[in-house]
Structure formats: structure tokens, C-alpha cells
Specification:
With 141 residues, this protein is mainly alpha-helical. It has two domains: 30 residues, no CATH class; 94 residues, Arc Repressor Mutant, subunit A (Orthogonal Bundle). The chain is built from seven helices and two strands; from the N terminus they run ααααααββα. Strands 1-2 form a two-stranded antiparallel sheet. Strand 1 and strand 2 form a beta hairpin. Helix 4 crosses helix 6 and helix 5 crosses helix 6. The radius of gyration is 22 Å and the shape is elongated.
Length: 141
């Protein structure tokens, strides 16, 4: 008798938890992941004093551009979005989103293309983009 046969035949004490097949039939939500460069954690967070909301807005925009399907990814531009929707998704006030966007532009992490559309650098700062050979198909800011 092999281990797989033993495990398949095992029934847990709680209903629905025993056996390999019962796991397959359950609707299990898989976690999602976003790839963020270590540079953000190692350099940006240590050298720039960002508020919690500024970090949230940065990650929100970064994920929109670089971590999710986006036809404007080669340009580093987010899809058109409503700032109200962003504020609701982040559970923050709209004024806080506006203030955070201004601060992130001052740092050079993002640039407003037009209202609701942002150029987001893959490596957060121009010098890091150059260091890691990140280009944007002639969309240079």
C-alpha cells in the first residue's frame, strides 16, 4: 500500500475535510500576487518619508501599470481611472488621494499625463530606470 492510497482513504474528523478528492471539489480562493521590485522596499521606503496613504497610492498605481494586464504597459501608463474609484478602493478620502498624487509627482515616481492617467516609472526614479535599462518606447518624462 502506498501513501497516496492511505491519504485518499483517510476521512477527517470534520465533514468535508477528509480525503484528497474533497479538496478538489471545494471552491478554494487562491491568493493573488503582485511583483514589486525589492528596490522599493530597500531604497525608496528607507530614503523617502512616505505616508501610509502615499505608499497605498503608489502601490495602487504600480499594480495597475506593471502587475495587471495593461495595454499601455510599454509606455508605463495606467489605464484611465476615476480618482473617486481609487479613493473608494483604498478606503481613503479623495483629498488625501489628490495630496498623495502631488507628493508622488514631486518625488518623480509618477507624472500626470492627463486627469486620471499616470506615467509610473517601473523603478520609481529616473536614475534607477536608467541603471536597470528600462525604456518606455520614446515616452520620456
Amino acid at each position: 500500500m502506498d501513501i497516496h492510497t492511505i491519504i485518499q482513504g483517510h476521512r477527517g474528523k470534520r465533514p468535508g475535510l477528509g480525503g484528497v478528492d474533497s479538496k478538489k471539489s471545494q471552491n478554494i480562493n487562491e491568493p493573488t500576487f503582485s511583483e514589486i521590485p525589492d528596490l522599493f522596499f530597500d531604497t525608496i521606503l528607507t530614503n523617502y518619508k512616505l505616508t501610509r496613504i502615499e505608499i497605498m497610492v503608489t502601490m495602487y498605481l504600480y499594480r495597475k501599470v506593471w502587475c495587471r494586464p495593461n495595454i499601455y504597459k510599454t509606455y508605463g501608463i495606467s489605464q484611465m481611472m476615476s480618482l473617486t474609484e481609487m479613493a473608494q478602493a483604498l478606503n481613503v478620502e479623495l483629498d488625501d488621494v489628490y495630496n498623495s498624487l502631488r507628493k508622488l509627482e514631486e518625488f518623480g515616481f509618477i507624472t500626470t499625463v492627463r486627469s486620471g492617467q499616470y506615467f509610473v516609472r517601473k523603478y520609481f526614479l529616473k536614475e534607477f530606470d536608467e541603471q536597470f535599462s528600462q525604456t518606455y518606447d520614446d515616452f520620456e518624462v
